[in-house]
Design a protein that fits this description.
The protein has 2 domains: about 350 residues, no CATH class; about 100 residues. The protein starts with 5 loop residues before the first helix and ends with a helix. By secondary structure, the chain is mostly helical. Helices cover about 75% and strands about 0% of the residues. Helix 6 packs antiparallel against helix 7 and helix 11 packs antiparallel against helix 12.
Length: about 475
């Protein structure tokens, strides 16, 4: 397979299987986020709900793009992502996967809603910190703290937003729907809700499933691409379908725009970025001028090419964010557009990778859903989930996740939905309507996920470095 020896072929198969398992577990761990409300409001039968949610999750992977996947991988500095020692890369991947699988399985077994995003990010931070202990160059940071801060902020705010907006939605529903008080009460026996509220619940179930697939599915895609780039860089470090002639045109345009920048107007930090960007673009032009097809590059040169493109993306982003940049709006748009075109050679995923993750997430959604569904439907609040509470929580979850996907930020579906349910319970009868034991368990898992996953993945990485 891909010209690898037997050992590396087996490692590749094992890592791909582990990535499939991670996304499969993610599916049945997070299924409750979409189906709990429709099941507990009698809008859909459980087996219909999970099958429909599974199909929508699978479709969501295809419509989500890869922005979130690249955001996750970019938490690790380029030095870690382009380490040419294949055994180091395998150690990194296995540490990430095992940590994520162990923590997700453990919290699922206990029936505790826990964020797969939180788990994966903690694992990445742990690997980056562990790498800093064994790296030759001790002067740089091996964790992209800027990206980690952005992602951490989105994970921190998402449950607060979910809780607050769910309360607001419940208030709006009470003001709009004054005659039909039944939607604010517990469902009677197995009767379905009124048609209009059932339609909303079905719509939000679909929305949460699609948005979950589009956001969380990308994390699986990102993991698979890390595996492929690490073990078979000749095939996957760069997108071989990119037309190198169009690529050369983009580089020439980037050079032309950069030359227009007045260096005297920049501060010291921006001047450094300008010098670095100029040099990086010149290096990339030299590399592309000497080839007609990226497949002719050696493994080492493909890694170098990839590193070059990633660094150009980071440097131009800093320049475009500078208040001192002397470029017209038109030139800024050209620079941004051309750099995005350059990044298509590194920021991509083959169709079969997306299909693989879509299948894993879709089928995972149809398995093992009862534990978390029971927690969300019965144990967060002291009352049975009403129609209005289900609709409010799902609307918040679908909207928040969709916006996060658009802006390329990973967000916790679990945290948003759980906090939305909690907010709807508080809106009904105040804080006393929450079950303290469940809220404490969810909060504890939320607090422990990062430190536990950081320690676990860092330890695994250092161990695997010794083994391999």
């Amino acid at each position: 397979m891909f010209g690898l020896d037997t050992t590396l072929t087996l490692l590749l198969i094992f890592c791909l299987f582990a990535a499939f398992a991670f996304e499969f577990i993610n599916g049945f761990h997070d299924t409750a986020n979409a189906v709990a409300t429709v099941i507990y409001t009698n809008s859909l039968k459980p087996w219909v709900a999970v099958i429909w949610s599974g199909i929508c999750n699978g479709i969501g992977v295809f419509i989500g793009g890869i922005t979130v996947a690249m955001g996750i991988s970019n938490m690790l500095p380029v030095e870690v992502l382009t380490d040419t020692n294949i055994h180091h890369s395998i150690a990194l991947i296995m540490a990430l996967l095992l940590t994520a699988i162990i923590w997700n399985l453990g919290t699922w077994y206990k029936g505790i809603p826990c964020s797969s995003s939180h788990t994966l990010i903690g694992s990445i931070l742990g690997v980056g910190l562990a790498f800093s202990f064994v790296a030759e160059n001790k002067t740089i940071s091996y964790v992209n703290w800027g990206k980690a801060q952005d992602i951490g902020l989105s994970l921190l705010l998402s449950p607060i937003i979910g809780f607050s907006i769910a309360i607001l939605f419940m208030y709006i529903l009470r003001q709009i729907v004054k005659k039909n008080k039944a939607i604010f009460k517990e469902p009677v026996s197995n009767d379905p809700p009124p048609p209009w509220i059932r339609f909303i619940l079905l719509l939000t179930c679909t929305g949460v499933s699609l948005s979950h697939g589009s956001n969380d599915g990308q994390k699986g895609v990102g993991l698979v691409m890390l595996i492929l780039i690490a073990i078979v860089p000749s095939y996957f470090a760069l997108d071989h379908s990119v037309d190198i002639q169009d690529y050369k045109k983009n580089i020439i345009e980037v050079q032309a725009v950069i030359k227009k920048i007045d260096a005297t107007s920049l501060n010291k930090a921006d001047s450094f970025e300008l010098i670095k960007t100029t040099a990086l673009v010149a290096q990339l032009k030299t590399k592309t001028d000497s080839i007609n097809d990226v497949t002719t590059l050696s493994d080492a040169n493909q890694y170098a090419f990839r590193k070059n493109v990633i660094l150009i993306g980071k440097s131009t982003k800093k320049l475009l964010e500078s208040e001192n940049l002397t470029l017209s709006i038109k030139d800024k748009k050209i620079l941004k557009s051309d750099v995005e075109s350059l990044k298509t050679i590194t920021d991509y995923a083959p169709y079969w990778v997306i299909l693989m993750i879509s299948i894993a997430l879709g089928f995972g959604t149809m398995v093992g859903w009862k534990r978390i569904v029971k927690t969300i439907g019965e144990k967060i609040g002291k009352q049975h989930l009403s129609y209005a509470q289900g609709a409010s929580a799902e609307l918040v979850a679908a909207g928040t996740i969709t916006l996060s996907t658009i802006y390329g930020l990973p967000v916790s579906t679990t945290h948003v939905l759980s906090s939305g349910v909690a907010g709807s319970m508080v809106a009904s009868k105040g804080v006393k309507n929450l079950q303290p034991a469940t809220i404490k368990a969810i909060a504890l898992a939320w607090l422990l996920t990062l430190p536990v996953c950081i320690i676990m993945s860092g330890g695994f990485y250092l161990l695997f470095r010794l083994i391999f």
